[in-house]
């Protein structure tokens, strides 16, 4: 599709007809017409309605600094701020050497402060995530090869500006730097920039590359709408190694330093890197388990090993049933899965049987596998926490817990063997991302399913009328990390209301919820609160906690549940609060 | 520009068609260039006041209208 076609398609879209909607604003110093239109069409392909706002030409400062501006009225979820190098440098663009290097440093410092001021103002009045484009480093300088010998010359100025932008975003969870310089590097300035379009209408990106840019920016929409995927399911033959283990045998499969083996090793290395940052891996293969597991356990050139996989299905059942079981065992939705398989028939079948799974049909040549994986935008998240990075290890520990469960007779015995310890703390700056993440993705043990971005959690943290808490759960096998959270609204000095009470499915069934609620009631008692209200809002997925309030001892009061703090309650034995 | 073919005449141009602005004009140039495999000069792009002007430039690049 051409840009023209995207724009035509965009003009007939009606965002209000979509269940999921997002508000995207674009503030830029140069013409980026067509970008938002393309993004909105790509959103519609993902069933998201995109409400667009484009700031006036080169009016980005005014749109942000004027609190009555249309930008502020729009109330964006996502704001893209794109300032081009020419506008940034102004008169210095052609020859910054008219002033001294010290003056050049001061100039860049001033520009960074201006951006900081814009961000600061924006955040005071908006909850939007702000994505700032960094600046294209000029590839031409009047000094030619001598440019790199200059003290704080033209190129160093922009590199320094870009570095200072990065520092701003490191300290500010709502600000992200989009590597526009990287984008230019990826596709080449010679391809992207056309003087004719620039002179005609200040267009600095050729139309075809506006489409590529839209593809890159969609990566910010994915996590805001919760469309990121969490698990990669892999076939084995001709996916993780060349050949078919059942036919070529252990020494006949292609895996190693020579082509095509090296292409598979590269693919495995990229998969391992994703696993190490929190993406779950699983296997779905039609094979004799002993043959395939032998490769996984003993082949010297395998990069991925058994312990890297949260779930392994090697059998002769149909691949769709396996995928369903994988989703169930890992306790995630099918829409969180990406499935890689080299067999087009398998892929067609899965696409029909399980359309919510993203199925990737790998081509015949494994040279392409790594790039296909790297081009996926489904794993993008705004925050990656310690819990994410330890996720792989946690699944392995979970298998060990399961093994213990099989040995033990009663639930109580099992729980006492586990030595569960819970650390409940008030929210702090470090735990805000994890708490927000839990509210966004926890579905099963979630009383009210209120979804909160980091900015909202921070608001509650800073408010005297709210208590936000986290629960870190450990047992004898390891630390699950922060897997529980609650938000309490103080209605007045005698009445509290539980706005949010949730538990990650990973720690369900161990009376952790009882311990958490006991903690809350105890806290209420200590602060002379008489009544604690709670609500259970049923959804398709939160059946598991439907009886919790009743079982704990809450009483029904019309649409609410209430616990009178004078009433006795039982703190679960076998659990220690630390 | 979403204007039905029947409404276009040789005199149609940015002056009398609302949706024909400079950006859409460039989109049109882009489509024509890739469809006919030619490249217009900036001078030619700027020298367009009507459809007949476009036809003239296309003819200069070897495109014929039968």
Describe the structure.
The complex is a heterodimer of chains A (578) and B (66). By secondary structure, chain A is of the alpha/beta class. Chain A has 24 helices and 19 strands. Chain A has 3 domains: 3-224, SGNH hydrolase (Rossmann fold, 3-Layer(aba) Sandwich), CATH 3.40.50; 231-375, 3-Layer(aba) Sandwich (Rossmann fold), CATH 3.40.50; 407-577, Gcn5-related N-acetyltransferase (GNAT) (Aminopeptidase). In chain A, helix 7 links the parallel strand 4 (129-133) and strand 5. Chain B starts with 21 loop residues before the first helix and ends in a 6-residue tail after the last helix. Chain B is built from 3 helices and no strands. The mean pLDDT of chain B is 79. The A-B interface holds A 2-4, 7-8, 11, 31, 33-34, 195-197, 199-201, 203, 207 and B 2, 22-23, 26-27, 30-31, 34, 41-42, 45-46.
CATH topology of the largest domain in chain A: Rossmann fold
Number of helices, where a helix is a run of at least 4 consecutive DSSP H or I residues of chain B: 3
Tell me the structural class of chain B: mainly alpha
Total separate domains of chain A = 3
Strand content of chain B: under 5%
Number of domains of chain B: 1
Which CATH top level class of the largest domain in chain A fits? Alpha Beta
CA-based gyration radius of chain B: 11 Å
**Largest sheet of chain A, described in full?**
9 strands, mixed
Low-confidence stretches of chain A: none
Helical coverage of chain B, percent range? 40-55%
Please describe the biggest sheet of chain B, giving its number of strands, its sense, and whether it closes into a barrel. none
CATH H level, superfamily name of the largest domain in chain A: SGNH hydrolase
């Amino acid at each position: 599709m051409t840009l023209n076609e995207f724009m035509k398609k965009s003009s007939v879209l009606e965002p209000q007809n979509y269940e999921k909607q997002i508000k995207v604003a674009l503030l830029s110093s140069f013409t980026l017409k067509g970008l938002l239109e393309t993004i909105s069409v790509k959103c519609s392909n993902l069933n998201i309605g995109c409400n667009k706002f484009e700031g006036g030409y080169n009016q980005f400062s005014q749109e942000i600094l004027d609190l009555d501006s249309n930008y502020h009225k729009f109330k964006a979820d996502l704001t893209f701020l794109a300032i081009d190098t020419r506008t940034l440098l102004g008169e210095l663009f052609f020859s910054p050497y008219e002033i001294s290097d010290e003056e050049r440093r001061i100039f860049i410092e001033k520009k960074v402060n201006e951006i900081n001021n814009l961000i600061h103002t924006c955040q005071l009045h908006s909850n939007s995530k702000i994505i700032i484009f960094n600046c294209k480093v000029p590839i031409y300088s009047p000094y030619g090869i001598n440019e790199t010998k200059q003290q704080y010359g033209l190129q160093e100025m922009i590199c320094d500006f870009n570095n200072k932008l990065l520092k701003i975003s490191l300290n500010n969870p709502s600000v992200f730097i989009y590597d526009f310089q990287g984008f230019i590097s990826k596709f080449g300035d010679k391809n992207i920039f056309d003087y004719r379009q620039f002179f005609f209408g200040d267009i600095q990106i050729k139309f075809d590359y506006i489409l590529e840019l839209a593809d890159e920016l969609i990566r910010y929409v994915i996590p805001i709408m919760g469309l990121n995927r969490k698990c990669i399911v892999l076939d084995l033959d001709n996916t993780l190694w060349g050949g078919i283990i059942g036919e070529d045998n252990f020494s006949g499969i292609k895996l190693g330093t020579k082509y095509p083996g090296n292409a598979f090793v590269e693919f495995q290395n990229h998969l391992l890197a994703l696993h190490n940052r929190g993406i779950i891996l699983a296997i779905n293969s039609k094979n004799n388990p002993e043959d395939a597991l032998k490769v996984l356990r003993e082949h010297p050139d395998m990069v991925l090993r058994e312990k890297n996989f949260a779930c392994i299905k090697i059998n002769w059942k149909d691949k769709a049933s396996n995928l369903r079981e994988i989703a169930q065992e890992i306790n995630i939705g099918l829409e969180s899965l990406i499935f890689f398989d080299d067999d087009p028939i398998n892929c067609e079948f899965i696409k029909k049987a399980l359309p919510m799974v993203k199925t990737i049909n790998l081509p015949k040549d494994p040279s392409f596998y790594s790039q296909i994986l790297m081009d996926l935008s489904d794993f993008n998240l705004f925050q990656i926490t310690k819990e994410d990075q330890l996720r792989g290890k946690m699944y392995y520990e979970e298998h060990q817990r399961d093994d213990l469960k099989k040995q033990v007779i009663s639930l109580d015995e099992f729980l006492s063997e586990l030595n569960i310890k819970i650390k409940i703390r008030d929210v702090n700056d470090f735990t805000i991302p994890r708490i927000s993440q839990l509210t966004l993705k926890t579905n099963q043990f979630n009383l009210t399913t209120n979804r909160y971005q980091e900015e909202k959690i921070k608001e509650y943290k800073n408010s005297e009328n709210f208590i936000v808490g986290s629960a870190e759960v450990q047992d004898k096998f390891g630390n699950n990390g922060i897997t529980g959270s609650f938000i309490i609204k103080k209605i007045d000095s005698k009445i509290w209301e539980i706005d949010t009470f949730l538990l990650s499915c990973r720690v369900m069934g161990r009376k952790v919820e009882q311990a958490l609620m006991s903690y809350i009631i105890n806290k209420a008692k200590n602060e002379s609160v008489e009544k604690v209200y709670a609500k259970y809002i049923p959804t398709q997925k939160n059946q598991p906690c439907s009886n919790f309030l009743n079982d704990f001892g809450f009483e029904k009061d019309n649409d609410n549940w209430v616990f009178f703090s004078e009433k006795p309650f039982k703190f679960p034995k076998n659990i220690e609060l630390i | 520009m979403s204007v039905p073919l029947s409404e276009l005449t040789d005199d149609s141009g940015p002056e009398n068609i609302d949706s024909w602005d400079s950006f859409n004009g460039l989109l049109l140039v882009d489509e024509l260039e890739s469809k006919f495999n030619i490249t217009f000069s900036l001078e030619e792009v700027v020298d367009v006041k009507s459809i007949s002007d476009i036809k003239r430039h296309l003819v200069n690049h070897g495109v014929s209208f039968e």
